[in-house]
Recover the amino acids of this structure.
């Protein structure tokens, strides 16, 4: 296996994407709608705009007042949905409490839903897609291997489980109701472990794992003023993705890949 770091992998992929975009007839266009002034959201949006600029994607932000009602938001989404030269549209979460998240997700044109949230979206959800692309690049052989996914959310655990099952892995999904004894039993046999919970160092380094296991840490939490993941750093496995500088970068990369794909699909139909 080629144990390249996430950072180096992302750098390499960005160079490839940049070259591809230069050769296009026009720049792919992404619209981000944000209806909050949340510190974390502001920082995620800033990161997405920065990535887009670096790669030659034309990204713009529509920042809306939190007092707008659902109908007004749906109208704006509809306009972007029907805008011919917009390839991708994302609505930054969280939304204010008076807006139905599922209704908004379902209102995005599936052909432009580059976050992969719409049930009919033709795009893979960004975090699972990024994890699988990275593992594929490493040369990880998915077929018949055991994966334990901890966390069953609609944006990470569940879509990842489906994609890994499609790759013929033996998939075990654990969650908040799983006992520690059962969790540790399954972990002992895992070739791949993915944590997407959001609890600092939930998986402590004393839990026995296979020596050649790969650990993918999706969780991001703040602990004593630092960003940390769900997995305590350890040396006794083949590879562990860091936090920060791990899955977050892969997620951002996947979004840009999806925008490019949306552009290419739009041109070819
Ligand atoms: P979520 O809150 O929707 O889901 C958390 C899941 O963890 C739930 O399914 C729950 O059953 C499970 N869980 C809770 N406590 C548990 C426990 N003690 N043992 C086992 N399972 C437990 O969260 P989410 O949206 O999937 O995000 C999870 C974490 O990943 C968060 O820290 C989030 O910030 C981070 N995240 C990072 C990225 C990235 O790009 N790096 C992307 C998405 C989410």
């Amino acid at each position: 296996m080629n144990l390249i770091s996430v950072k180096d992998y992302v750098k390499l992929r960005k160079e490839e994407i940049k070259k591809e975009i230069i050769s296009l007839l026009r720049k792919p266009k992404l619209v981000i709608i944000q209806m909050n002034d949340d510190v974390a959201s502001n920082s995620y949006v800033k990161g997405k705009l920065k990535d887009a600029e670096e790669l030659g994607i034309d990204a713009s932000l529509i920042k809306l007042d939190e007092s707008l009602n659902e109908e007004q938001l749906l109208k704006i989404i509809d306009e972007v949905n029907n805008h011919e030269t917009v390839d991708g549209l994302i609505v930054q979460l969280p939304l204010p409490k008076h807006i139905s998240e599922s209704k908004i997700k379902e209102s995005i044109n599936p052909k432009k839903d580059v976050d992969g949230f719409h049930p009919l979206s033709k795009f893979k959800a960004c975090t699972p897609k990024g994890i699988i692309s990275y593992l594929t690049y490493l040369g990880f052989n998915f077929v018949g291997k055991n994966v334990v996914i901890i966390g069953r959310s609609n944006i990470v655990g569940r879509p990842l489980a489906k994609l890994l099952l499609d790759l013929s892995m033996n998939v075990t999904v654990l969650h908040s109701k799983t006992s520690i004894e059962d969790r540790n039993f399954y972990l002992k046999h895992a070739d791949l472990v993915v944590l997407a919970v959001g609890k600092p160092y939930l998986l402590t380094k004393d839990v026995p794992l296979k020596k050649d296991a790969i650990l993918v840490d999706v969780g991001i939490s703040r602990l004593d003023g630092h960003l940390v993941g769900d997995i305590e750093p350890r040396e006794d496995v083949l590879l562990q993705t860091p936090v920060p500088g791990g899955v977050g970068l892969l997620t951002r990369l996947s979004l840009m890949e999806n925008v490019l794909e949306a552009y290419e699909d739009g041109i070819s139909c």
Notes: The first helix runs from residue 6 to 22. The helical segments are 6-22, 39-55, 70-81, 101-107, 126-138, 157-166, 180-188, 247-268. The chain has a mean pLDDT of 96.
